[in-house]
Amino acid sequence: MSTEQQMQQSLADLPAWMLILVALAGLTGEMWRAEAAGVAVGVLVKRVLLRFGSSALFGVSMLMFVYWLKQDYLLAGAMGIAVGLIGADISGGIYSRYLAKKAGVCNVERQG
Q1: Which of 43, 47, 54, 78 could link 91 by a cystine bridge, Cβ 3.0 to 4.6 Å?
Q2: What pLDDT does 112 receive?
């Protein structure tokens, strides 16, 4: 069996709700943060898409990695959600820092 066939079989064995849950892991937090800050709708949509995309990318990657290690699918789901949230926070922080540098608000200097 080729690697592609193994990947397709692994995806077929996973419950669909787990993939959806991992993909949506970062969406709620970003909506809550953006609403509290009073962000414009266009910026909000960009930030939500960035957070959703990075959460899905990191989370599903970890989900498939743990599942590939022949671990329990609940452990794979938990690890996928945790890594998805962490990845979404990191990418959101990097994007916010980029916007601050672009606007000239924050002057980032290297320490050391």
Answers
A1: 54
A2: 46
| Cα 47–chain centre separation | 12
User: Which residues span the domain enclosing 80?
Assistant: 15-103
Domain membership flag for residue 86: yes
Neighbour count for residue 82 (Cβ, 10 Å) = 15
* Number of neighbouring beta carbons within 10 Å of residue 112: 2
pLDDT digits (tens, 9 = 90+) for 15-73: 777 667 766 665 666 666 666 666 677 777 777 778 777 877 888 888 888 888 888 87
Residue 5, in any domain of the structure = no
Number of domains in the chain: 1
Model confidence pLDDT, tens digit, residues 75-101: 888 888 888 888 878 887 887 788 788
